[in-house]
Structure formats: C-alpha cells, structure tokens
Amino acid sequence: MRQQLLDILEIGPPSLDNFVPDNNEELLYTLKNLVAGNQQDRFYYLWGSTGCGKSHLLQAIATIFLEQQLNTFYIDCRQIDKLNIDSNIDCLVIDNVEWLDPAAQIKLFNLYNQVRENTASIFLASGSLPPAQLDIRQDLATRLGWGLVYQVHELTDEKKIEVIQDYAARCGFELPLEICSYLLTHKQRDLSSLIKLVNALDQLSLTRKRPVTLPLLRELL
Q1: For residue 45, what are the domain limits?
Q2: C-alpha distances out from residue 118 to 62, 112, 205, Å
Q3: Are 173 and 194 members of one domain?
C-alpha cells in the first residue's frame, strides 16, 4: 500500500490518477470506465462532505472530456450563480448544486432534460447531501437521483497522515506526527491542501536551512 500511494500521489491539477480512493474504489473504477467509453450509464451524482474529493473527481472528468474534444461545461455553483449554456452539450458537470438559487435551479432542470434527450450526452453533478435531502426544487432533486448516486467517503485522519508522511518521505525528509496532527487541526483538511502545505514546508526548510519542525510550520502558517 505504501508504494502504491507513492506511485499515484503527485502535486498537480486534479486527475483520476492522483485521486487516493481508499473507500471509493468502486466509484473511481466506474469513472475510469466512463471516460474510457465503457460505461452505459450517462447520469451521475456524487455527494459528500467538504474536502471528500468530489470536486477533484468532477474536475478530472471535465478535463479528460475536454482533452477528448467533447463540448464539456464544468460549473462550480459556489462561484457562478447563472447557467448560461446555449450551445450543444456533450458533457455537463455541475459542482455544488445546493448553491444554486431558484432561478438557476429551473435552468439546471431544463439543462438536465436537454442532456437526457441527447442520447450521447453525459451529466455529472455533486452536492453535500443525497438528492432527496437537498434544499432544492423537488423535481430537480428527483432527476439528480435518477442516475447513479455515489457517496464520496472522506479519507480518515489516519489515512491522511499516512499519505502526507509518505509524500514527505519521497521528498527526502521525515514529517513528525505532531506536525501532521497540527495540520489536521489548524488548516484545511482536504488532502490536496495538506500536500501543498507539506511541499511548502519542505521548500521553507531548504531555504532556511532548518529541519522540519513544528516551530517552522508555525512560521509558514
């Protein structure tokens, strides 16, 4: 397992290859089949807590389909409150649907139906809760639940510590447990943010010519 984590973990844009699956193996397998054209299902909904990796997966899927020259739209509803999409859609990816206002929910309902009518189009969405528990229009929630629905399980703290310590070891330094615990308590807890902080800590250690310690981490933060 240790070598496997080292092989897949890299700093870079979200991809299916640098997603650590842990308890999400079935979901990752399904999405890899989707982008390879081996999946018959066209509608997917991912849900889970902040930092579980659902946005990572959706961004990775959108990137792959764009590279395949498909007309793909990725929209993070936390940043964009209007869904102004008038062209043909090969793949529609809607992240954090619970942030949509009532007008945008109607627009997404219509876009969903548009995608459904095109038998070659694909729809993926994410939210913090299962479709039936979202505080959105009932007809939209119903449609989000029509396809495959997956909960994205967040890595346990123990697994996160294992991953970031393995990353540090590959960079050539030891990451003490007290630093890992401090990171999990004081900063963003998603794995991508943790890896970036470990990398920044390594760079600061090299620049200052000081060992990686908790005081050095506090200076970084």
Answers
A1: 21-151
A2: 18, 10, 54
A3: yes
Q: Tell me the pLDDT tens digit for each residue of 197-215.
A: 888 888 888 888 888 888 8
Based on the fold, state whether residues 146 and 162 are members of the same structural domain.
Answer: no
Residues 153, 159, 161, 167, CA torsion sign: negative
- Written in H, E and C, the secondary structure of 25-81 is HHHHHHHHHHHCCCCCCCEEEEECCCCCCHHHHHHHHHHHHHHCCCCEEEEECCCCC
State how far the Cα of 149 lies from the Cα of 13, in Å rounded to an integer. Answer: 25
Per the listing, tokens 């943010």 go with 193
Contact between 93 and 111 under an 8 Å Cβ cutoff? The reply is no
Residue indicated by tokens 């649907």: 97
Tell me the pairing of strands 148-151 and 72-76. Answer: unpaired
Q: What sign for the dihedral angle of Cα 109, 73, 155, 217?
A: negative
Q: The whole model's pTM is what?
A: 0.82
